[in-house]
Amino acid sequence: MTRFRLLDGLRALLAAAVLAALIAGVPLALYALAGSPLPPTCPTWANSPTRSPTATTAPSSSPWSRTSAGRHGPASW
To answer: 16, 22 in Cβ contact below 8 A?
Structure first.
């Protein structure tokens, strides 16, 4: 009976080691192959994509420019 408990304990330790290797090894391997997913510097407001003039203005041919805000907006609810 003691021999089976010892084998079960060793099997559990081996499973824990394999799981730890997978949890730590996959991100480390991806970092080694593809590099860091984070940008090298933090973006500032000056170079933010939402600050560009093309991102804030809608084209005049947009279907949203032809809808009535009074009929579809929260003020008419």
So the answer is: no
- From residue 21, alpha-carbon distances to 16, 52, 69 in Å are 9, 45, 56
Rounded Cα gap, residues 25 and 21, in angstroms = 5
Which segments in the chain show pLDDT lower than 70? 1, 48-77
Query: What is the C-alpha separation between 26 and 32, in angstroms, rounded?
Result: 10
Dihedral, 34, 39, 41, 42 alpha carbons, nearest 10: -160
> Is the pTM value of this prediction over 0.85?
no
Residue ranges of domains in the chain: 1-35
- Are the C-beta atoms of residues 48 and 55 closer than 8 Å to each other? no
Task: Write the burial class of residue 23 (CB in 10 Å: 0-12 exposed, 13-18 middle, 19+ buried).
Answer: exposed
